């Protein structure tokens, strides 16, 4: 199963340098709406089987044009929602950088718990569980490998990618997830394969299904020794 993790397009809070968190009504700005429209061309003829989305407005707005073009219903999943930043929600980033917790978020995020909100370790656990559950459901529904898209938030994507890389959560700040970027993970019974991170190009063109074994003997989910032959 292969998931495209799409970060929402640029929002009004992004340009205001405010930590939106789960604030209601945070919409895309003009550039973000353009990014949402461009998503149709960027996906191209990839056979997307499902579109899953965080409940927040900026994510729904990002995938609405694509879902309409594909003739798919958007499935909302709370497991892909933004981090609950608690008392940090709605505050200026410039103010938050002066908080003692900021240094913990940067250097030791596995220990970071936002006052009145959730911890980043909790975020990773519930987001990875949500992705895995959709993988399981879609595998049953489509009888094997399927390609699907999940629209969510920057820190959520970074946490899921870190898990797929086998990277401790304390290293998740090494992963980038820009607005409207796509990161791609293929899950197999043995391990995840990270195929793209922070893709912002015109077209997501690489093959996004399980590659054929070059010798017909490599077990499914095994990495090809020496690297891909493509």
In short:
By secondary structure, the protein is an alpha/beta fold. 35% of the residues lie in helices and 15% in strands.
Question: Which keywords apply here?
Answer:
230 residues; alpha/beta; globular; Phosphomutase_MSMEG4193_put; His_Pase_superF_clade-1
The total of helices stands at 7
Give average pLDDT, whole number.
90
The total beta strand count reads 6
Annotated CATH topology: Rossmann fold
CATH superfamily: Phosphoglycerate mutase-like
Outline the low-pLDDT stretches.
209-214, 223-229
N- to C-terminal distance: 20 Å
Question: Number of folding domains?
Answer: 1
Alpha-beta classification: alpha/beta
Rounded radius of gyration (Å): 18 Å
Q: Which sequence of SSEs, written as H and E, runs from N to C?
A: EHHEHEHHHEHEE
Helical content stands at 25-40%
CATH architecture: 3-Layer(aba) Sandwich
CATH class: Alpha Beta
Beta-strand share of residues: 15-25%
How are strands sequenced across the largest beta sheet? 3-2-4-1-5-6
Shape: globular
Mind summarizing the main beta sheet?
6 strands, mixed
Written account of the structure:
The chain has one domain: Phosphoglycerate mutase-like (Rossmann fold, 3-Layer(aba) Sandwich), CATH 3.40.50. 35% of the residues lie in helices and 15% in strands. The protein has seven helices and six strands; from the N terminus they run βααβαβαααβαββ. It has a six-stranded mixed beta sheet with strand order 3-2-4-1-5-6, sandwiched between helices. Helix 2 packs parallel to helix 3 and helix 6 crosses helix 7. The C terminus is likely disordered.
């Amino acid at each position: 199963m292969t998931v495209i993790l799409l970060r929402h397009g640029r929002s009004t809070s992004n340009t205001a340098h405010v930590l939106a968190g789960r604030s209601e009504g945070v919409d895309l700005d003009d550039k973000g709406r353009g990014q949402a429209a461009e998503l149709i061309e960027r996906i191209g003829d990839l056979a997307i089987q499902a579109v899953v989305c965080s409940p927040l407005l900026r994510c729904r707005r990002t995938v609405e044009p694509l879902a309409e073009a594909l003739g798919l219903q958007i499935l909302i999943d709370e497991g892909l929602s933004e981090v609950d930043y608690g008392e940090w929600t709605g505050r200026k980033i410039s103010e938050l950088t002066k908080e003692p917790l900021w240094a913990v978020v940067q250097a030791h995020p596995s220990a970071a718990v936002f006052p009145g909100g959730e911890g980043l370790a909790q975020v990773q656990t519930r987001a990875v569980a949500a992705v895995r559950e959709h993988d399981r459901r879609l595998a049953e529904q489509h009888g094997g490998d399927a390609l699907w898209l999940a629209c969510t938030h920057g820190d959520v994507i970074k946490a899921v990618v870190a898990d797929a890389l086998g990277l401790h959560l304390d290293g998740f700040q090494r992963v980038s997830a820009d607005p409207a970027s796509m990161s791609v993970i293929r899950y197999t019974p043995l391990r995840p394969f990270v195929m793209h991170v922070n893709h912002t190009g015109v077209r997501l063109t690489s093959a996004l299904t399980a590659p054929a074994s070059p010798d017909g003997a490599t077990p499914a989910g095994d990495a090809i020794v020496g690297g891909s032959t493509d």
